[in-house]
Amino acid sequence: MGSENPAEPTRPLGGLPDDPADACEAETDVCARGPRTTPRGSNHPVRDWLVMILGGLGFTVGLCLTTPPLVESVDFVLYHQANFEYFRQAVTQFRLPLWNPCIGLGRPFLADVQNAVFYPPAYLVLCGPRLGALLIVWLHAVGALAGMRALGQALAMDRPVAWGVAFSFLLSLPLTGRLMAGQILYFGALCYLPILFRCTLQLTRGAGGRWVGCHALLLALQFLCGHPQVFWFSALGQICFLNARLLAGAEPGKLQRWVKANLQLAGAFLLCAGLAAAVLLPFLELIGQGNRTGGSKEFCDFGRLEWLDLMGLFGDPPQAQLLDWERNLFIGALGVLGGVAGLLRWKDPDARALLVVGLFALLLSAGSQTPVFDGFYRGVPGFSSFRVHARSATLISFVLLLSAGLWLSRTRPSRAAWLSLAAAGGAVLVLVTIHRSQLTCVRGVPFSGWIATAGLALLMFRLQGRDRRRSLQPWILGALALLQAADLLNANLQYKGTYSFLNVQKTSPDFPYRQAVRAALEEKRSAKPDLWLPRVLVPRKVVPANYGMLDGYGNVDAYTSLFLERPWRFLHTVLELPEPRLKNTSLAGEIYERNPFGHPLLAVDVGWDNARRVCLANTNRAPRAFLASQVEVVAPRSELLDRLRRGHDGQKTPLVEETAGIGRHASLDSAGTVQEVSWSSERIGLVVRAPQEALLVLAEPWYPGWKARLGTQVIDAMPANGWMRAFRVPAGEHRIDVFFHQNHLATGVGVSLLSMAAVGIFIVGRRRGAALPWPRSPKGDAAAAIRS
User: Whole-model pTM above 0.85?
Assistant: First the structure.
């Protein structure tokens, strides 16, 4: 639905350019491809924000409170609930959660970006993990609507089309599927996609420094939201979009605009890194100490997108992987038809840029099925570090929805319009015909719905530009919106039950044995009380690995993306377990078939008897802190672990590495004692009595930053037995304070504060361009244009 007279392009007051470069680009676009059609309607900011707030609320209530509710979803039960509660307790106790002793024998908490300690909306969990999760979803749903609405406005979509695209994006299965799976922060990171592409689009129009500052701030928020892989493929998509939009054509000054835009984008990413430095620097250290340092092509290709998964854009894939939210791309019939038709209009620079983004996302997600896999593995930064690249296919759904909006708003009744729609319908028809034996109806809407969608779209464009029939177009557009809404809502209803905890895990989220673990812990405390956090080894199907954060104990196992490499190697090598190399978020399940108290170095308090299906308390647990009688240096670490696997007594003679600074065979005869006087997550107080120099060993994981204070002297921990903390202590009686100091945190906070000041100068100190990339009032747009 363009202007009534195609020869005279007009722009309503609300669509005036924010910047002189916008006007230049609009003029260039007219010269390059003919006059641009004009979006109908003007902005009403108060009403728009009211619609977005209420729409986000309805989305949150409808998706998160209906059966099965968000609090019973897979990842909320297994991961987020415990993390949110641990974070909430730390904040209410006015302490910084540096270390988490409750999972994987112990690991950093703040340094893991997935815990979102520096993400401002995460503090909504202070209202409680469940209410806080709902508020986080609501906030991000409003942000997704606002960002998509702003992006549609910037792409000159008609007002109703922009709203339809915004709600279609929010209700698309790449977003809602993540919520159904309980991946709240992953959903939040995806909600930043539209507004980030809005900022990138503005950079291609010669935007000023204020947009660079806004872009950097939004990029940092997406990273801090807690899923690095979303940030990674989002950043790659923005780079593709910017360059594809600027490199085509032969307009005057194109090279200068391209150089400037790329420098601005690089500046935004640099400022983003500075803003996120408080967690980025510790996170890089955690990556180096995690169990994913040795990447491989097999690991990188795990979880790729299969070609037939593209059928999921509009129906059930023939292989019908209904439980795989990683590959769920469904956007509805109209999204696919209009999206493919819009992408075929390559003379439009916006459609061309979206096409490049979609193709690049397809190559990323398809893995080794494409000839560029080896090149991506070697040349694309970050590609070899991630698995499940099917996640980047979210960009395909995103691109198709945007191009459908462009097609609905800009197409005129020309031969190209008819050909693009026919090609889109033909492509879909071919896919359906090939797999007709396996596909009886598209997701949510039978083939009659597809026929109605295509017929209404053809009729709308046949009527476009004819004044005597123009009054029919809103009704046709409304009918298309109803078909799209029916398609998306029905798909969400069907998948909601499929993604339930009971259907995925084949067990109830109540975990009745949880009380049995608590009872065994009480038995252990009453038999032999001590200050140490009790340690548990119970199957994940009995009680989730991360529930120690809720019930106050530590677990040998964990459900986390970066298990510490030293405990990981120790547990799988010494206990002779097959090491999971692809799904390496938890230990090998065979660990629960072994005697839970069989290895004294683990110092397990409560275990599980598989035969009788009961929890057992260990009343004769090995000490968690002891003085070594002898020390032996063994290198490399693989040989050290092999010695322990063959039965070496690591308590009598701890094995240390050459970096420990001890002689290869040191005799530190000691009959001393260790007494625990205090314990907390990041600090342990001990009284050591040693007749001569000794080695204090703690059955806790070594990690850079663990130190001990002896009087005025501070010494670093050394690794012992492959994974434990050890400290050399002199003869005599000493009060030793063992504490955790997060490396690079102070430096990162300083860099973040400086970067925040720089972003503030960009946003507040520069007057050129629009202040924020959100919908604004028509008067504000007019004033900005007049000032320009």
Answer: yes
pLDDT band, very low/low/confident/very high, at 294 (cuts 50, 70, 90): low
Residue 95 lies in a domain: no
**Are residues 180 and 198 both part of a single domain?**
yes
Given 569, 597, 617, the domain boundary residue is: 617
Q: Are residues 484 and 605 in the same domain?
A: no
Single-letter amino acid, residue 202: Q
169-191 per-position pLDDT tens digit: 999 999 999 999 999 999 999 99
Please give the tally of structural domains in the chain: 3
Output 443 or 472, whichever has higher pLDDT.
472
Residue 663 DSSP symbol:
-
CA angle (531, 536, 541) in 5-degree steps:
150
In a domain, 206, yes or no: yes
Cα dihedral across residues 748, 754, 755, 757: positive or negative: positive
Whether residue 332 is found in the same domain as residue 196: yes
Q: Answer whether 488's CB lies under 8 Å from 171's CB.
A: yes
Pick from 257-266, 333-342, 528-537, 545-554: least confident: 333-342
Report the distance separating Cα 159 and Cα 162, nearest Å.
5
Task: Specify if 97 maps to a domain.
Answer: no
Residue 144 amino acid letter: A
Q: Is the pLDDT of residue 23 over 50?
A: no
Which residue, of 617, 652, 668, is where some domain finishes? Answer: 617
Percent of the chain with pLDDT over 70: 80
DSSP 685-742: EEEEEESS-EEEEEEEE--TTEEEEETTEEEE-EEETTTEEEEEE-SEEEEEEEEE--
Q: Does residue 78 lie in a domain region?
A: no
How far, rounded to the nearest angstrom, does the alpha carbon of residue 596 sit from its chain's CA centroid? 34
Residues 227, 359, single domain; the answer is: yes
Residue 306 and residue 397 in one domain? yes
> Using an 8 Å Cβ cutoff, are 19 and 203 in contact?
no
Could you tell me if 369 and 390 are in contact, meaning their C-beta atoms sit under 8 angstroms apart?
no
107 vs 33, which has greater pLDDT?
107
Give dist(CA 35, CA 28) in Å, integer. Answer: 10
H/E stretch holding 607? strand 606-609
Whether 691 and 764 share a structural domain: no
User: Per-residue pLDDT averaged across 326-331, rounded?
Assistant: 90
Question: Alpha helices, DSSP H only, in 367-442?
Answer: 373-379, 394-410, 415-434
Instruction: Determine phi and psi for 216, rounding to 5 degrees.
Output: -60, -40
CA distance 585 to 606: 22
Both 603 and 629 in one domain: the answer is: no
What pLDDT, on a 0 to 100 scale, did the predictor assign at position 35?
Answer: 40
Is the same domain home to 482 and 611? no
Say how far apart CA 239 and CA 243 lie, in whole Å. Answer: 6
End-to-end CA distance of the chain: 29
Give residue 654's domain range: 625-740
At residue 629, the pLDDT reads 76
